[in-house]
Queue: 2 jobs
Job 1
Amino acid sequence: MLMDAGFNADGSFGADGYPGPDDWHLYSPENFEEAGLWIEAAISMNEALRKAERDLEAGVYQYASDAFQEIVYPVQRSFSSTGAADTEGREKAGDWLEKAGWEW
C-alpha cells in the first residue's frame, strides 16, 4: 500500500521527497483500515504543505506560521485519530517550512 501511494516500503519519504507516514510520526496502524487512513493522512498533509509553500511563494502569507495555521494544521486536526495533530506532526510541518527558508 505504501509503495502504491508513492512512499518507501518503510513508510518514509516518497519519490517526491515529501514526508511519509512514519516521517510524520503517525501512530502505527493496527489493521488494514487504519493503514489506509495512515497513508491518506500523510498524502493530505503533504498536499497541505505544498499549498502552504505555493501560497508563501505567491505572497498570500508572509510567515510560515500563518500558512501552517491556515492550511496545514486544519488538515492535521482532521486526521487527529492518526496522531497527525500531535506535537511531532506539528513540529515536522514547522521544520519543513523553516528548512525551505520561510521565516516562522
Job 2
Amino acid sequence: MQNLSQSTRFKYTGTALPGNAAVVVIFTTVQLGWGANFLATNGIQRILVSINNSQSGTLNAYQSSDRGANWVKIDTLAVAAAAANTERINDYFVTQYADWKLEWVNDATPQTVFTVNIASAAERTVAN
C-alpha cells in the first residue's frame, strides 16, 4: 500500500443525526477493513476530528491489539453543544496503536445538527 503522506480526509459514514443515548462510531481501522498497524504503516501520526453538534455527548477513544476483539478505552471527553455554526476540533495521537477507534455517545436529546470531518496528519506535532 502506498504511504498516505501529508494528509488524507476520511468520510464519516455513521448516523446522520444520533438519537438519545445512541453510540456512533466516528472512525475505526477495524470496520474499514484495513490491516493491523494501518496507521503506522501509512505514516499517520494523528487523526483530527471536527464535530459540529447541536446537543451534548461524549467522545470515547479506544485502542486494540487484537483486531477489535477487545477494546481498551484510552480517552474520554464530555462535549457540550457547539455554538451556532462552530465546530470542536479534536486531535488524537494514534501511530502507536495496532487499531484505533473513536465513538460518539449521544446524551438524552437527539441531534438536530451533526457534522463530522475526519483527516489524518503525518506530522507528530499537535495542530493549533
